[in-house]
Structure to design on (576 residues):
């Protein structure tokens, strides 16, 4: 009788689930991903030439300006993730930050179109000043905030359209991340070919204008899909819950842990409004936050639930994984700065067609656009039968493959640079073909396919229910730190090598790449990537997946029907 009543109670929820979410809702998100990423990647690979040729930064300053901008963009994804987890739902957050992005792109378009808003060449590392600098940096800051906020909410919003507790939808969720990558790749291909060609061969302001219109259409499309979405309502502040555990654990540091974890405080199932997480034996000192002292009532800042403590443990276990992928993103930054500058002084001819140097990343993007469907349609089904994992292989295994390939990419980049520089010194009028760069771009493109999807799925699946956006933003946090680290490496290596080299010139000094030692910088990153891979292996082997904490593993998820637990705060009405 009780089972019958439970089924009757679940029937409206199941009917609601079938009418909303899934791949029908995801299609609107895929459109936004393609159109928004078209402009994002076009800027990422070409705007360094805008800094260099129009805004008159030197080589190092234009590269650093780009990496600082990209780093800020990805870092600000944490803001979008925090807001969508705590104050606004992910749908509203995405539209809010999208409006800031469109405004910033419009400002860039106006400045690029007006010659009186361009600085005069001065021969210094940076020539922007006064009102020109004010408009330039304001537009970049707004663009970083808008794009970052969108990335901090859009991925988790798309993943919300699938219930990871349902075996069928759990497999669909794994597929969602692959198709999201494919949609963004299709947009990126358009950006690095059509938009980059317009920007570099016609006029920068027309390129920015196309990006502005595309992004506007993307966000309008997202808004039109509202009737089809599952919109989760925000919960308690993630940072507040984390702070409570740390503070209470510190206050209870002198207390002894009970012999059984069953004596730790946890709310009953009937009172739970969030998914409960099973206790683990790692980081036991945090368990002291869940000790109820005698003659005291359960109150905030006096005691925390086991679930709340486990949320902090999960985030803590994630941090070494985040740190282990920073170097990979530092390597990626070079392909958007120095590799583009390399291509700009190489032979850009493909028959009678002149190829813009920033368009060379189309090669790895084409690889990805072919490999993603092959991976999803052929590799994953076969791997599922062997591993019983919904994604075919674990997310951390995917990341490990990407880290190895990124190290190989940097080693190859150094070899190609030696060949380019030697020919440039020997006969500058006959540079080698631009397509020599396709080796390093192609290898890194495959690395990115493995790593990006692996990290996004890893952070979404492993994160607590009320921290999905914030945790997914850890992927972009790693990217941000990688870009900032690139800036640090460029400045430090220039300063150090300037003192120790016989020529008293840094590896990356001045305006002429033919007089630099960019190959040594690439090989430095390749060596660092190899060391980082072994560091990653250590932490990945130590990591305990959340599903392992909860009993049945991914095999049960792939093969057994699971009982659906209704959570009051999971999904709200289509408001906002």
């Amino acid at each position: 009788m009780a089972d019958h009543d439970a089924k009757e109670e679940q029937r409206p929820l199941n009917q609601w689930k079938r009418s909303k979410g899934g791949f029908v809702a995801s299609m609107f998100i895929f459109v936004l991903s393609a159109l928004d990423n078209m402009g994002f990647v076009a800027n990422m690979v070409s705007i360094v030439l805008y800094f260099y040729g129009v805004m008159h930064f030197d080589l190092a300053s234009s590269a650093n300006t780009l990496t600082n901008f990209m780093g800020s963009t990805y870092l600000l994804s944490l803001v979008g993730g925090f807001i969508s987890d705590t104050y606004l739902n992910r749908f509203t957050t995405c539209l809010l930050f999208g409006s800031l992005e469109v405004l910033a792109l419009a400002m860039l378009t106006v400045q690029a179109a007006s010659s009186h808003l361009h600085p005069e060449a001065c021969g210094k590392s940076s020539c922007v000043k006064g009102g020109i600098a004010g408009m330039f940096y304001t537009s970049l800051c707004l663009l970083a905030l808008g794009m970052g906020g969108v990335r901090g909410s859009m991925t988790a919003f798309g993943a919300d359209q699938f219930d990871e507790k349902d075996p069928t939808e759990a497999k669909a969720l794994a597929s969602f991340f692959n198709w999201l990558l494919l949609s963004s790749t299709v947009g990126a291909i358009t950006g690095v070919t059509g938009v980059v060609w317009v920007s570099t061969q016609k006029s920068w302001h027309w390129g920015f204008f196309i990006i502005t219109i595309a992004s506007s259409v993307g966000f309008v499309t997202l808004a039109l899909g509202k009737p089809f979405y599952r919109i989760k309502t925000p919960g308690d502040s993630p940072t507040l819950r984390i702070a409570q555990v740390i503070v209470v654990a510190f206050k209870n540091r002198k207390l002894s842990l009970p012999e059984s974890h069953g004596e730790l405080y946890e709310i009953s199932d009937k009172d739970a409004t969030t998914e409960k997480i099973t206790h683990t034996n790692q980081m036991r000192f945090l368990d002291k936050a869940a000790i109820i002292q005698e003659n005291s009532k359960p109150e905030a800042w006096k005691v925390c639930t086991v679930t709340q403590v486990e949320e902090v443990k999960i985030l803590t276990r994630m941090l070494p994984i985040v740190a282990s992928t920073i170097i990979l993103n530092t390597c990626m930054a070079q392909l958007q700065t120095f590799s583009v500058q390399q291509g700009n002084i190489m032979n850009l001819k493909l028959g009678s067609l002149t190829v813009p140097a920033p368009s060379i990343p189309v090669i790895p993007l084409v690889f990805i656009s072919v490999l993603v469907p092959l991976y999803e349609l052929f590799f994953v089904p076969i791997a599922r039968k062997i591993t019983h994992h919904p994604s075919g292989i674990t997310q951390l295994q995917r990341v490990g493959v990407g880290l190895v390939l990124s190290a190989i990419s940097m080693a190859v980049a150094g070899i190609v640079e030696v060949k380019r520089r030697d020919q440039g010194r020997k006969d500058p009028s006959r540079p080698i073909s631009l397509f020599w760069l396709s080796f390093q771009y192609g290898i890194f493109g495959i690395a990115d396919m493995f790593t990006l999807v692996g990290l996004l799925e890893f952070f979404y699946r492993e994160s607590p229910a009320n921290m999905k956006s914030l945790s997914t933003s850890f992927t972009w946090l790693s990217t941000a730190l990688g870009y900032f680290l690139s800036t640090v490496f460029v400045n430090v290596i220039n300063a150090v090598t300037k003192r120790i080299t016989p020529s008293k010139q840094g590896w990356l000094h001045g305006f002429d790449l033919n007089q630099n030692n960019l190959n040594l910088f690439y090989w430095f990153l390749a060596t660092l990537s190899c060391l980082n891979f072994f560091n990653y292996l250590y932490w990945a082997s130590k990591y305990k997946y959340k599903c392992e904490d909860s009993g049945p593993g991914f095999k049960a998820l792939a093969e057994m029907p699971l009982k659906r637990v209704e959570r009051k705060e999971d999904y709200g009405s289509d408001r906002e």
Q: What stands out?
A: The CA atoms of residues 341 and 508 lie 12 Å apart. The first strand starts at residue 349 and ends at 350. The first helix runs from residue 2 to 19.
